[in-house]
Design goal:
The structure holds two protein chains of two kinds. In chain A, helix 4 crosses helix 6, helix 10 packs across helix 16 and helix 12 packs across helix 14. Chain A is built from 19 helices and two strands. Chain A has a two-stranded antiparallel ribbon with strand order 1-2. Chain A has three domains: 33 residues; 106 residues, no CATH class; 221 residues, MetI-like (MetI-like fold), CATH 1.10.3720. Chain A is flat and about 100 Å long. Chain B is mainly α. Chain B has 16 helices and no strands. Chain B is flat. The chains are: A mainly alpha, B mainly alpha. At the A-B interface, helix 1, helix 10, helix 11, helix 12 and helix 13 of A face helix 1, helix 5, helix 8, helix 9 and helix 10 of B.
Chain lengths: 423, 403
């Protein structure tokens, strides 16, 4: 364009400056792209992101206490727990008032259940008090302190009131503390009693077992990926079916297959007994424990390791290995110094993928894991559907999610989300 | 593959070593099952070495030698334990006969580079054996399920009748149970209702968004991509927990304010939840297809007067269709296979097939589960074949030679 001499700005065909015209075209293009994406983005935001965020919020949300017992919470604010004395009559009167209101709305069991997560005994305390509270006459002016203590002696214990005060905040870290085997007490965060410490161990076990599964997958996946990448295409495609068929088979089919294989009267034990390697009365116990979970999950997640490794190994030139050997390297040196470093991205991608999938697994540990082989996700499911301690479930979920997101970020750095391939 | 190395006959001690090892290995198993492993190994090794010596020095006729081994081992197996051991014996015999000549003629060398040392040759075959074992590990669980689903007993194990290939040990009763049992049929029907609708939603929205994402200027592409892929990354149990709380509120609202039927609301919840889970797969496959899409085609269409909608349906869609269909298949299998989310979001009337299997596995009721598993394996083989076909077609359309 240097040979065209113009004094003003470059004009488009319709006379507007070219710059503005281009900017408009770009804007139109951007808008069109966003319009195409918008429906899905809104759909995912509403039906996936918002539910997850609201679940995260649930892990700190403690408004139930103040919503159900507004007067007691307000009255307790002035009480000094360290004084060693029981609260005064106004607090008891407020409690009586809240209890009556809650009992009429049938909410007293919910709040009792909420506080019961912190200290057992609250559930029965509130149920008993609530039953009596329906008959309270709030305007009679009689002292509620004696009356309440008479209904349940726990109202005369200072510990009860301390717990009520500690857990009367709107937003609590209590669930998160519970999730790491600690508890919220009047004197700050403290470790849970020894017999209640299960969750840290469970987190540790989840991590450890996921690591073992990832390690097993690397060990078993590497040779397979290597041979798939180095065989002639026709044979490699045939063998690939053996990898893809398990990958495509329903998770429950594979899990039930492992149940059939691993049972005490199952295929593996039967074959071993038939061959005489073990006696009939000393069959191996390889189901309903950690071994069962590790075997089954290694099998289930192995394709997720093989496929990324394979796609990386395919790009490694075989001539590099030959060059190394012709320069005098032994087989091992050629592999270790030339081939292996180039295949590390595949190992990294596969490992992170397998690890992310493993720490969130639920179905397989639930079926073949028994008590000793379950993961943190099974605990979450337990708290959602059985113990109904949803706040704790949400806190456990948040910790798990944080771990996964960090790994996901690492995966993005190493592999890039755009490079995820399927099948 | 053409032979790389001229082959030559090997000395007898090498043949003896190989076939002796083979004999000892299988002898060990037969020996342990009959009392003494060591005796079995020694007898097996001696038998194989003797056979090899006889074939090489006396018989000198390969087809006859292999035939004799095959038949003799088969008959010996039959004498020992009927049909199953006969088949096992014949297999071992066929393998052994082949091995003797493979080793003696030096055929194992033919396809390897001539300069390899013997250690490298050994490693070559050792490595292949290891890989073979891993492939067996991958495929065995699936293969074990298939025959067990025809079990005539209500057991999860092989009965003696089955091992004898006695027809009385096999039956189709678990399949019959699956097709006649109300519970299974209802869950199967639910799966067939939920999965296709969820797939249609995720494919429609996902394809549109993938086309949007593949435009050259998209503000915040990485962030959008991360959000859209997140349902695949977030552990299912967390998605399920979040959706459990959220959809129960939505469900109450739909029942309360919109006055919808409780059952219908249940289906809507599960379908929406599954549609979200399928979206990442559609996005990934369709964007991958669009990377190879030639943009000048849409410009050419526009040039000839086609409006964007016509361009999309007449030019772009047919070309990216394989990608869309494979994305749809992924979304379908995700929904069809999904159990955690439906367990939390759905109610008993939305029980899907995986859910029914899950309860069955926990309570261990009947091998009907294995019949269902077999049906599902057949379905996944069909899907896998379709997908492979589509991949080849897509590569052909894009002018690549299918590999």
């Amino acid at each position: 364009m240097s040979d065209i001499k113009t004094n003003g700005p470059v004009l488009a065909a319709d006379g507007t400056p070219l710059k503005r015209s281009l900017a408009r075209a770009l804007r139109v293009e951007k808008t069109r792209a966003l319009m195409l994406i918008a429906p899905l983005l809104i759909f995912v935001l509403i039906s996936f992101i918002i539910p997850i965020v609201s679940m995260l919020f649930r892990s700190v949300d403690n408004r139930i206490v103040e919503d159900t017992m507004p007067y007691t919470v307000a009255a307790l604010k002035t009480w000094d727990a360290s004084s060693g004395a029981l609260p005064d009559e106004p607090v008891y009167a407020a409690l009586a008032r809240d209890m009556k209101a809650a009992a009429e709305k049938k909410e007293h069991t919910r709040i009792g259940g909420r506080l019961n997560y912190e200290e057992s005994g609250f559930s029965s305390l509130f149920r008993k008090t609530g039953r009596a509270a329906k008959k309270f006459d709030l305007d009679s002016g009689e002292p509620f302190k004696a009356k309440l203590i008479d209904i349940h002696k726990d109202w005369g214990k200072i510990e009860t009131w301390k717990i009520m005060q500690t857990h009367s905040v709107d937003y609590t870290n209590g669930y998160f503390l519970n999730a790491v085997d600690m508890k919220r007490t009047p004197d700050g965060a403290q470790m849970q009693d020894d017999d209640k410490r299960v969750l840290l161990k469970l987190f540790g076990r989840t991590m450890w077992m996921s690591l073992v599964i990832t390690g097993m997958c690397i060990l078993l996946g590497y040779p397979v990926a290597w041979i798939l990448a180095n065989l002639p295409a026709r044979q490699a495609n045939l063998l690939m079916i053996l990898v893809l068929l398990p990958f495509w088979t329903s998770l429950l089919v594979r899990t039930s297959a492992w149940k059939v294989m691993l049972q005490q009267q199952g295929v593996i034990n039967d074959v071993l007994v038939w061959l005489g390697f073990i006696a009939d009365d000393s069959r191996l116990i390889i189901i309903n424990n950690a071994t069962g979970t590790i075997i089954a999950m290694t099998h289930i997640l192995l394709p997720f390791m093989i496929l990324p490794m394979y796609s990386v190994m395919q790009t490694i030139q075989p001539s590099y290995l030959r060059a190394a050997k012709s320069l005098g390297a032994t087989n091992w040196t050629a592999f270790w110094r030339v081939y292996f470093p180039q295949s590390i991205p595949g190992i990294g991608a596969g490992s992170i993928l397998v690890f992310i999938l493993a720490i969130g697994y639920y179905i397989t540990p639930e079926i073949v894991g028994g008590n000793k082989g379950v993961f943190i996700s099974n605990r979450i499911a337990y708290h959602i559907s059985t113990s109904l301690n949803w706040g704790l479930a949400a806190a456990l979920g948040s910790i798990l999610l944080a771990a996964v997101l960090i790994l996901y970020w690492a995966y993005d750095k190493i592999v890039g989300i755009d490079n995820v391939k399927l099948g | 593959m053409a032979a790389l190395t001229p082959i030559s006959r090997k000395p007898f001690w090498l043949v003896a070593l190989m076939v002796g090892g083979f004999g000892a290995f299988f002898g060990l198993f037969i020996g342990t099952s009959n009392g003494s492993g060591i005796t079995g190994a020694i007898v097996g090794a001696a038998l194989m070495v003797g056979l090899a010596w006889a074939y090489i020095n006396l018989l000198k006729n390969e087809p006859v030698g292999r035939g004799i081994t095959f038949a003799a081992f088969g008959i010996a197996g039959f004498a020992a334990g009927g049909l199953p051991t006969a088949i096992l014996g014949a297999l071992i015999g066929a393998l052994g006969g082949w091995l003797i000549y493979w080793a003696y003629e030096g055929r194992y060398r033919a396809y390897l580079a001539p300069y390899l040392t013997w250690q490298q040759v050994l490693w070559h075959f050792g490595f292949r054996t290891i890989c073979g074992v891993i492939f067996v590990f991958l495929i065995t669980p699936i293969l074990v399920v298939l025959p067990l689903s025809f079990n005539a007993q209500n057991f999860f194990t092989f009965t003696p009748e089955m091992l004898r290939f006695d027809p009385a040990g096999y039956s189709l009763k678990h399949y019959q149970d699956f097709f006649s049992n109300n519970e299974w049929q209802r869950s199967f029907k639910n799966s067939l209702i939920i999965a296709p609708i969820a797939t249609i939603i995720s494919v429609t929205l996902g394809t549109l968004a993938a086309i949007g994402l593949s435009q050259s200027h998209v503000p915040g592409r990485r962030a959008i991509m991360a959000i859209l892929i997140s349902p695949m990354i977030v552990p299912l149990i967390i998605s399920a927990t979040g959706m459990f709380f959220f959809y129960s509120q939505i469900g109450n609202w739909m029942e309360g304010s919109l006055g919808l039927d409780k059952n219908l609301v249940g289906y809507i919840k599960v379908v929406l939840a599954h549609a979200v889970l399928g979206i990442p797969f559609v996005i990934i496959t369709v964007t991958a297809t669009l990377v190879g899409f030639d943009r000048s085609l849409t410009r050419a269409a526009a040039n000839m007067g086609a409006d964007p909608v016509t361009t999309f349906f007449r030019v772009q869609m047919p070309l990216i269709l394989p990608g869309v269909i494979s994305g749809g298949l992924f979304a379908f299998i995700t929904s069809f296979d999904e159990v955690v989310v439906v367990l939390f979001v759905g109610s008993a009337s939305q029980k899907t097939l995986p859910w029914q299997m899950f309860t069955g596995l926990r309570e261990q009721i009947s091998p009907t589960i294995l019949a269902v598993a077999t049906i599902l394996v057949v379905i996944s083989i069909a899907l896998l074949t379709t997908l492979e076909f589509l991949r080849r077609r897509s590569e052909r359309l894009r002018g690549m030679s299918p590999s």
